[in-house]
Structures are given as structure tokens and as C-alpha cells.
């Protein structure tokens, strides 16, 4: 990896455990909400609201065939909503977080909007977005079974939605642009998902490690317009099955040009499979991020990392 231009330091590591003692598992995205951070679990119908006083589990979707958690061992993985995106948004003029499924199966094509009422209590609304996912797949030039939307970054009034590529399967990492207000309206049932505009097909060649291609897992936009992408080299044949992660990285991108790729430091002697990023603060020479790590183990708590990124 060519790390010239980016240096990553892990300033803090925190295991995510809910107030009731249960582990926050399969963390896949993170975004600010109120005085804390909303962390999605891609194997559950609930998310974790990480606040100064604790970690509260918040239901965002109804049970699926009676299940609220999903996994390979239980034979329920195919049922999971697979919420992989958390992006700052607005709803009726108030701050909110937009959550989006990966689209890798028809069950994973939903959007959820979490906002706060006047008393600071969460309000959750959800909507089916299948026709929009079909348009995104068409714009990316992939068949629906290869769709795997795992990240997003906000750029003013638009959202760039990222396809996690799979080099072995011939699917590149790429992003499309969607107007954020129209996407929110579709989730709220105020607009037809089939009419939400989808533009662009920005490709990203992130390279490979040990013969396994790096693929984007999330992204944040920096104030100067550049992007920081999290990327994982996961040896898997498709968009559904997990595989061994041989490396993970942060990638600095300007437009579609990769400027630098920096390996993420190991934590506890293990590769950190970062699946979600959020920007805490940024200046000309340094950015401070929150990152969530999926342990790919349904019994193990995910971790929340504070990262300091030097930008030369």
C-alpha cells in the first residue's frame, strides 16, 4: 500500500456493549444523532445509540418472521435487513440519520429514517425502496444479485452511494449520486422510489493485498471535497457470504483518483475490518474520525475506534 499522504493513528478503542449487557454485533455504519452516535447492526432489527451515559438499543424495523437477530448458525442469515449505511440527513427541517440496506437481496432494499422529536426522543420511520435499488444496479451496470451497497458520503444536498466491489467476481467498487431530499421523501412515502434520480457511476480502483482486491466499505467527505474511504480486502466469492479479511485500509480520493492508501493499524493483533466511518472534525492537515469494526462473530462485541488521520 502506498501510504504517502495519509497516516492513521488509533487514539481509542471501545467495545460496544448495550446497557442491558448484550453485545452490539456486526457494526456496519455510524452517524451522529443528538448528543451521540447511531451505530447500525447489519444482523439485527435494532441499532445502538451510543451516548455519553450509555448505549441504548433502538428498534428500527419489525421482526422478520419472528426474528430480531439473524445468523448463519441459526439458518436465518437470508432474512436479515442488512442495514449497511448511516448518513446524516434532515426530515421536516430537523436533523436525522438515514439508514439504508445493502440491496444484496430483495429483503435488503429498505430505508429507515431516525429523527428526534421536540423532547429528544427517537422517531423511526421506514419505507421499501426496491425500485430505487433496481435503478442503482442499472446505473452501476451490475445484475441485482451482485448489488452490495455498503457505504455513503454526504456532499451538500446529495448522497454518494457506494457499491462494495469484488475484484475476483469482476465487480469494481463504484458510487452513484442521489439527491438526499428526494431519497428521504421516498423513505417517508412522500415520493415514488422509482422516480428518485440516480446519476453517475464513479469507479474506484483501490488495488489489492495478497491477491485480494480492496473494496470500499464506507466513506466520508472532507471539507475540501476529497473523500476518505474505508476499504477491506475480503476473500469472498459474492455479495452475501463472509470470508477472511486479509487487510483493511483508509483511502484518500480526489474525484475518482486515488491519492494514497494507508493500512489501518491492527487492534489486539487482528486486522480491523472497518465497515463504518463518521467525521468528527477536520482541518487542512488532520481529520478525526469514528470508525466501527465488524468482528464477523455473532457472540463478539463490535468495537468503536477513534482515528486520527494526518493528511499531507
How much of the polypeptide forms β-strand, as a percent range? over 45%
Number of domains: 1
Strand arrangement, largest sheet?
1-22-21-20
CATH topology: Neuraminidase
Helix content: under 10%
General shape: globular
What's the architecture in CATH terms? Answer: 6 Propeller
Tally of strands: 22
CATH class value: Mainly Beta
Major β-sheet profile: 4 strands, antiparallel
Secondary-structure element sequence?
A: EEEEEEEEEHEEEHEEEEEEEEEE
- Uncertain runs: none
Q: Mean of residue pLDDT?
A: 91
Tell me about this structure.
This protein has 312 residues and is mostly beta strands. The protein has a single domain (6-311), classed as Neuraminidase. 6% of the residues lie in helices and 49% in strands. It contains two helices and 22 strands. The strands form six sheets. A four-stranded antiparallel β-sheet has the order 1-22-21-20, with no helix packed on it. Strand 2 (27-33) and strand 3 form a beta hairpin. The longest helix is centred in the middle third of the chain and has 11 residues, at 130-140. The two termini are 16 Å apart. 46% of the residues are buried. The mean pLDDT is 91.
Amino acid at each position: 500500500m502506498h501510504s504517502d499522504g495519509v497516516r492513521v493513528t488509533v487514539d481509542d478503542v471501545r467495545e460496544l456493549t448495550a446497557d442491558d449487557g448484550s453485545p452490539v454485533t456486526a457494526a456496519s455504519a455510524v452517524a451522529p444523532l443528538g448528543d451521540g452516535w447511531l451505530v447500525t447492526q447489519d444482523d439485527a432489527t435494532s441499532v445502538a445509540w451510543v451516548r455519553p451515559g450509555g448505549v441504548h438499543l433502538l428498534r428500527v424495523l419489525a421482526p422478520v418472521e419472528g426474528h430480531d437477530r439473524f445468523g448463519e448458525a441459526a439458518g436465518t442469515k437470508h432474512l436479515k435487513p442488512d442495514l449497511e449505511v448511516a448518513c446524516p440527513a434532515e426530515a421536516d427541517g430537523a436533523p436525522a440519520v438515514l439508514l439504508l440496506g445493502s440491496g444484496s437481496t430483495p429483503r435488503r432494499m429498505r430505508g429507515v429514517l431516525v429523527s428526534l422529536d421536540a423532547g429528544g426522543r427517537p422517531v423511526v420511520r421506514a419505507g421499501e425502496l426496491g425500485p430505487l435499488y433496481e435503478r442503482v444496479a442499472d446505473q452501476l451496470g451490475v445484475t441485482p444479485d451482485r448489488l452490495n451497497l455498503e457505504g455513503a458520503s454526504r456532499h451538500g444536498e446529495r448522497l454518494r452511494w457506494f457499491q462494495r466491489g469484488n475484484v475476483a467476481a469482476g465487480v469494481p467498487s463504484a458510487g452513484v449520486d442521489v439527491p438526499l431530499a428526494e431519497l428521504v421523501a421516498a423513505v417517508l412515502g412522500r415520493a415514488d422510489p422509482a422516480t428518485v434520480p440516480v446519476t453517475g457511476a464513479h469507479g474506484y480502483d483501490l488495488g489489492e493485498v495478497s491477491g485480494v482486491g480492496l473494496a470500499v466499505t464506507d466513506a466520508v467527505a472532507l471539507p475540501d471535497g476529497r473523500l476518505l474511504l474505508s476499504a477491506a480486502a475480503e476473500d469472498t466469492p459474492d455479495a452475501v457470504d463472509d470470508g477472511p479479511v486479509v487487510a483493511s485500509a483508509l483511502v484518500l480520493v480526489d474525484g475518482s483518483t486515488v491519492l494514497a492508501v494507508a493500512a489501518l493499524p491492527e487492534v489486539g493483533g487482528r486486522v480491523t475490518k472497518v465497515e463504518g466511518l463518521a467525521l468528527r472534525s477536520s482541518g487542512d492537515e488532520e481529520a478525526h474520525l469514528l470508525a466501527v469494526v465488524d468482528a464477523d462473530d455473532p457472540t463478539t462485541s463490535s468495537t468503536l475506534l477513534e482515528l486520527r488521520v494526518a493528511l499531507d
